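Structure record:
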Amino acid sequence: MTSVHHATPLRRAPVQRRSAERLTRILDACADLLDEVGYDALSTRAVAQRAGVPIGSVYRFFGNKRAMADALAQRNLERYTERVKERLTETATETAEGSAAGSAEDSASGGWRVAMDAVLDEYLEMKRTAPGFSLVDFGNQIPLGARHAGPNHRVADRLVHLLSGHLRREPDDDLRRVFLVAVETADTLVQLAFRVDPQGDEKIIEEARELLRAYLGRVLD
């Protein structure tokens, strides 16, 4: 079970396992209903019914459906971070073996490419498979179609914290700016890919990957 990060503004944070499990069911139900009926038709009562909990349990955590969607977006970010960590852990042995076989310079220049593929691929996988993700992702599409800087700043900051050590770079303002530009660029192009094809147009995704490699290569190589 993945918990909601403490930064999420809940009316009451779960302190017992039973309460945490109930919160998880509520967010799972919210995600499923977002895919089925959309945000406008979503209601706290429908979420309570789907989750099998009293309506009072929903209001114990959330004042309205927007707060629920925000908490779901925060949970998405936490799960995404864990997925990227796991992906990097899986490739760490391969990277170490490559470093032993090649020069330190070659290893350093390739490390960010491995990280970038993990970051992009795990986002695409969640976009395709995670319930409710297509509407709320990390919090920047509710109301539907609205885009603003806040969530992408949070994603960029999270990636700086997660990857700076992997890239052997200081998590300074320059690296934060680089990651923010990369996140904003990837976000725009991935949204385009999924408008063209519900599963993400592969040619557009590859164009996005090449664009990111060219930009990050100029900065990180």
Notes: The longest helix spans residues 65-101. Confidence is low (pLDDT under 50) at residues 1-7, 103-109.
